[in-house]
Design a protein that fits this description.
Elements: E1 2-5, H1 7-20, E2 26-36, E3 39-53, H2 74-87, E4 90-99, H3 107-112, E5 118-125, E6 128-137, E7 144-151
Parallel strand pairs: 1-3, 1-7, 4-5
Antiparallel strand pairs: 2-3, 2-4, 5-6, 6-7
The structure holds zinc ion.
Zinc ion (ZN) binds next to β4.
């Protein structure tokens, strides 16, 4: 599995996530995906555009808030879908930040993810994008596998 993204788009993603700090920030990846024999593990995704979305998570409690949760509104997903159609692309993934936390998926991320789609997580440390990793949920939802991120 490999996700290819241009340096320009990656910089745009990082700027959006840094601007959202110390909250989690998020968005949607538009692009193309190709498979060999329909097997998820052979998926090669090419990111062609981003849709930047506000984090609309509203619950604030001692354990949960925008620092460790994010939510993309259905309207933003619909907007991304429209934009993808207009450009002849698909929604190939989602991205969000982990402010001052590692760029690996949380248990919550696993609960709300679904297979095939890429989940890019960027660790933002002190308002600076640090590490970028991409994760794909297994078909049986048991765990994420890391996919290679190639900056073109
Ligand atoms: Zn997360």
């Amino acid at each position: 599995m490999m996700l290819t993204i241009s340096g320009d788009l990656l910089a745009r993603m990082h700027a959006h996530l840094e601007a959202g700090y110390p909250s989690e920030a998020c968005g949607i990846l538009l692009g193309d995906v190709t498979f060999q024999n329909g097997a998820t593990r052979t998926a090669a995704k090419f990111v062609k555009d981003l849709v930047l979305a506000p984090n609309v998570w509203e619950v604030e409690s001692e354990r949960e808030g925008q620092r460790n949760r994010y939510l993309i509104s259905p309207e933003d997903v619909a907007r991304a879908d429209c934009e993808a159609n207009r450009q002849g692309l698909d929604i190939v993934g989602f991205f969000h930040s982990h402010p001052d936390c590692p760029s690996r998926p949380s248990e919550t991320d696993r609960e709300f993810a679904w297979p095939v789609i890429s989940f890019v997580i960027v660790s933002v440390e002190k308002r600076k994008a640090a590490t970028t990793n991409s994760w794909v949920l297994r078909d049986d939802r048991s765990r994420f596998d890391e996919e290679i991120v190639q900056v073109s």
